[in-house]
Every structure is written in structure tokens, then in C-alpha cells.
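If you are new to this repository, start here. Below is one unmodified record pulled from the training split, so you can see the exact layout before writing a loader.
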Amino acid sequence: MKRNFIYNLLAIAAVSAIAVGCAKSHETSAQEEEEEYLKAWLQVNHPDAVKSGYGIYILDDQPGTGANYKGEGAIYVLRTIRSLDGTVASTNDGQLAKQLGTYKQQYYYGPHMTNVAGNNAIVGITDMLYGMKIGGTRTALIPSWLMTFDRYASEEEYKKHENDYAPAIYTITLEGAYESAEKWEGDSLARYIMHNYPGVSASEGYAYYTIKAPKKPIPADSTVYINYTGRLTNGQVFDTTVEDTAKVYNIWSSRKTYAPVAVKTAAKDNAVTMGGSTVVEGFGHAVNNVGVYGHGISIFMSKYGYGSTGSGAAIPPYSPLVFEIEVVDKP
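And here is the target side for that same chain:
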């Protein structure tokens, strides 16, 4: 998102008036131009906005009823980002996506776990969190100079460091705050296994439930055919080779062929391949352990999947994954 954002006509007029009324004795910087624009935009759109932190402007604040945010290392949030003309750039709010007509069944909508410890969140977000309570929703204008992970001692220091981002309006709902994303994920996975697969224990971030015992182990460097279905722990299916499953969960696509796929086992889980590409380590672990004609459900933490970034719009950050895998005959 480059800084070549489009000024609306009213804001341009306001900026022009400022420029005419205040003669410059020096050539203005990009930051100074942005400051003038933001002042004009706020005057027109949010004259009662409250400046906070290192220069964000709180546009709306709906306090929560839960505990105060105390600087915990991880937050669980709904987030929507808008440009200054109101266009929604991204959101994980399913209701809003439906209103906008952008909702897609195969996408995940809901709170994301975000690691904010160790400068892992932009400064504007950490400014927004200050003073919030669990359950609260806050909307703020974040200027470009606070779209950074670097930390400085003052607002003026931030303004000295240009970047390629545009100012944006963030709306966040603080659903929860936790000691760390990893602890939250581990606790969530333990609860999921206890509720859905009582008696199954997790070891080093993996758990396996046997539906059908295999005839024998699969040797390394063997090619076998499998059907699989991948889910989040909320039950949402994000991928499958089974056409009926794709239709039931409304993720069917005419561009995909639904049939068993070939996978090649390996001595190491992270070296298992499918379609010539390596799979995530947790999936590889499942393939290596399901056995010949075996059928089971493999559950693993995100460190063996897509980690702190997730994968596209279907798998959010810090998501444990659940794969049902069955070894079948070659089609």
C-alpha cells in the first residue's frame, strides 16, 4: 500500500487553504504534507477525534466489560483496515464481509491470534491497545509513520523515518489477551483433543486417532495414494480430495480434480512430497505414520503447519490443524 493515496476533493480544498494561508519558508517533506492532509481530513470527518500515544487518533471507542489489557504478549482480535476514503482493504469480520459481498465460504472469519511481544506489532496497534478492556472495540486513524515495527523515543523521531505505507483506519475488537500465542495454542489444542478425542494424548505437539489400523508400516521413499481432508479446530474444512466433502462444506471448485493423490514418503517428515512439492511437516508426519491402508486423524500444532503467519485467507496464524488421511488403492 504505497503513499500515492487519493485525496478527496474536500480534503484537497482544505489543504490548499492551509497552504495559501501559511506561506512556507522551506520545501515541505512528505511527512509534513501528510500531517497537513490528516489535519484537514480529521477536521472534516472526525473533528472530535482524540490524539493518543505517538500520534494515532481515536475515532470511536466502545469500552469492553472484561479485564484491562495489561501488555500481554499475545492478543486475539477481530480487525478491519480501511483507507481514508472508507474502502475496506481487509477484514476478518465475517458479518462485515457478508455486508460487503466479499464473503467466501472457504475463508476463515473470526479473531486472529497476534503476537505483540518483542515488537511484533506495528506501533500504531500497540498505541491502540493502551487502555482497552477485553470485549472492547476501538477505531483509530494510524498515520504512516506509525506503520512500523521499529521503536523510537518520541513522536518526532517516528516522523523522521519515512516508509512506503499510507495512513489507514484500523478497527480492532479485543477478544482476549494471553501470556503468549504459543501457550494459548497449546491450551486450545489440549481442550480440543479432550473434547473430541478423549483418551488420545498429544506428544511434542502431535496427536493421532486411529479410525482403521494399517496392515503394515509404509517404507520410506514409497509412493502411496491417499484421500485427505484438512480442517481447523473449529470444524471448518479448508481442503479435501473428496468431492462430496467439498460440496457439503461449500468449498467445491470446478477447477479442482477430486481424486486420491500420490504422496511420496521420506525418512524425515519435512521431506514428504505431494505433486513434486514438500508438504508441511505435520502432514508429512501423518503420511509417514498412517500405514498401508490405514485411516486416521492427525492433529498437530501450527509449528508443524503454517506457524505464526497462517496460509492465505483460509488458515489464520497459530492454527493447529486436523487432517483425516486414508491410504487407498491407486485410482
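Two things worth knowing about this chain: The chain is about 25% helix and 25% strand. The chain has two domains: 47-179, 182-328.
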